[in-house]
Amino acid sequence: MASPHPAEPEPTTPTRYQPLTLDQLRQLVATDWADLPADTLVVLSSDTEGNRYSPFSAYLCGRYAPVYDQSGAVYPLESELAEDPELRELFCDIPGNAVAALVLYPLG
Question: Is residue 27 predicted with pLDDT exceeding 90?
Fold first, then answer.
């Protein structure tokens, strides 16, 4: 039986456990993210009050659905679900309002 709160998909870390520089960010925009639709939502994994700061370190191309006013959950892409039966079982109840998203994760 699938968990009611499955873990988020694993983010991609371009340089494992290292903060990214602006040059690396520009490279990601020009290569890895170049084919993403212009209306792809950008989602940050952070605290809304800005109490702590951490360098950008990893990203995930997935789907995002709001749960509360300004926060939500991240889900795998449909193509990932099609390729992985275990992932389909974990994420069997993806909300209909989930949209394509580029999710950015901090180092710490």
Answer: yes
